[in-house]
Amino acid sequence: MRKVESIYLPVHRDRRGTFQRLYDYDLFENFLPLPLMQVSVSTNPKVGTLRGLHYQAKPAQEWKIVQCIQGEVWDLVLDLRKDSQTYGQFNFFTLSQRNNLALIIPPGYAHGFQTLRKNSVVTYFMTARYDVELSRQINAKDANLGIPWPLPITEISDADLEANSWPQEF
Fold first, then answer.
1. Catalytic option among 54, 55, 109, 111
2. How far apart are the C-alpha atoms of 82 and 6, rounded to whole Å?
3. A GO molecular function for this record (predicted)?
4. Which of the following is catalytic: 55, 109, 111, 124?
5. 122 in a structural domain
6. pTM over 0.85
7. Alpha-carbon distance 74 to 84, whole Å?
8. Is 111 a catalytic residue?
9. N or C: which end of the chain has fewer CB within 10 A?
């Protein structure tokens, strides 16, 4: 059964700064069954910004590799797979430029994050192109989910704020 994985991405440091691969086929080939189709970046100037919970419906379901390359975020995945023992449960991870963690998120999970530092930058590597018709959101503030966001929410999009409540058909 597919599950969310976190992996450490090696970083080389010297007096000039750092060098790090954001994607390396040899590192990710054992996790991703499909080729990458899209790479995106999210910039977030304010602490407390909330993005999510997002996923794409069939047939545009996607694998994602998510990394925070600047700042720090509290990253959350919600299991949408009805046949899973962890259906409806969420896991969270702290991703930052300091810990060099990346999440590998398979289809069947909604994803979101809240910024813990100003000017946080998050990259997404995806195996499917974004499809506005198949894009879905779950309201991250829904009391049925009980997500303990670490900070007061300072910024959230209207679409995320008006998203459907949990549960949803995946």
1. 54
2. 22
3. dTDP-4-dehydrorhamnose 3,5-epimerase activity
4. 124
5. yes
6. yes
7. 24
8. no
9. N
For residue 81, what is the DSSP state? -
Gap between the Cα atoms of 111 and 76, Å rounded: 6
Do the beta carbons of residue 160 and residue 52 sit within 8 Å? Answer: yes
SS3 content of the chain, % helix, strand, coil (to 5): 5, 45, 50
- Cα separation of 13 and 114, whole Å? 28
Q: What are phi and psi of 25, to 5 degrees?
A: -50, -45
Q: Is residue 127 part of a domain?
A: yes
Which pLDDT tens digits describe the chain residue by residue (170 residues)?
A: 588 988 888 888 889 888 888 888 887 877 888 888 999 999 999 999 999 999 999 999 999 999 999 999 999 999 999 999 999 999 999 999 999 999 999 999 999 999 999 999 999 999 999 999 999 999 999 999 999 999 999 999 999 999 988 886 65
In the chain, how many domains are there? Answer: 1
Q: What is the CATH number of the domain that holds 58?
A: 2.60.120.10
d(CA 116, CA 72): 5
Residue 123 belongs to some domain of the structure? yes
